[in-house]
Amino acid sequence: MIGVDWQNVCGAPDAPARAQVEDWLARLFPELDATLVVRIVDPAESARLNRQFRGRDAPTNVLSFPFEAPPGLPDERHLGDLVVCADVVRREAAEQGKPLADHWAHMIVHGTLHLLGYDHVRPEDAAVMEPLEVRLLATLGVPDPYHL
Predict the structure, then answer these.
(1) What is the pTM of this model?
(2) In 10 A of CB 18, how many CB atoms?
């Protein structure tokens, strides 16, 4: 089971509840015994982190920060941190004409896959990650987010 440290620091009223996110993750990754942080932020915090860690001066939907135990310390079974910008998720869902809850699920799944080592920068990596995302989201009843 994946435990979630839930931090809705911007007070987004339409973010999913921690229990909902834990349910999604338990259904999709039942074999994982780990924790992760989900931090819901405003555009200013998202932009600051995106600028600092990715060199992009704008807020983004989700940032993933995989955990690496310092040398000599045991792996604490912590996957890492997800930072999700509620305003960007809300805007993207409206622009793409999809239910907000579906887009939240997509961002959580997408970010978690990054924490598990998947990527989509190179086409060959995207060819692995994106179909996996689509299959996982279908398990939750969420339509393919890449073919709207």
Answers:
(1) 0.93
(2) 15
